[in-house]
Fold Lactoylglutathione lyase/glyoxalase I family protein.
Amino acid sequence: MQLLDSLREQELKMEIEEVCEAQALPLLSLNHVSLLCRSVLESMQFYEDVLGFVPIKRPSSFKFTGAWFYNYGIGIHLIQNPDIDEFDTYMNESRPINPKDNHISFQCTDVELVKKRLEEKGMRYVTALVEDEGIKVDQVFFHDPDGYMIELCNCENIPIIPISSCTASFKPRSHSFKRSTSNFKCGGFMQNVMMQSLSMDMMNFAF
């Protein structure tokens, strides 16, 4: 009886894995975030001086104004917005900083230092605190020159715990698991999650 149950479990596991593989696209990692901006020069200064991104070469085939940056395993692509429309007018306004707005989030090592640096630069920001089972995450939100939301946090404090068997092959953060992953199981079929970091090939950047 136990052997039969074991065989059934293995068959069901294989069926689930086949479904998951069929649904998932062959992704590796987040490559870059592309942003429209009113002034490429102003945005370049922000992403370089405030966030520490490094300017990199753009393909020579591009015939429009823009700039590429790279750091922390991700690229930022800035594109000059040639049109003056309602979008630009809205972004020019002093928007309230809403943590629930669309945003890009970066992990940081010292939230207090982040707040100090932003204050030194005269930049507005708001803070938030996330708590879960005794774990606390500090968040700092602010805008770039075009009103795009940026978050800096110590989000690595929160462990990544899959809630579906279809996440068995997900690519976790390389160093942020705060709880052991050796016993992770979802639906009785979750295999051990292997820690790995993905390298990004700079030559494969795509607009």
Summary: Confidence is low (pLDDT under 50) at residues 175-207. The beta strands are 32-37, 54-56, 66-71, 74-80, 103-107, 126-132, 135-143, 149-153. The radius of gyration is 21 Å. Residues 96-158 form a domain with the 2,3-Dihydroxybiphenyl 1,2-Dioxygenase; domain 1 fold (CATH 3.10.180.10).
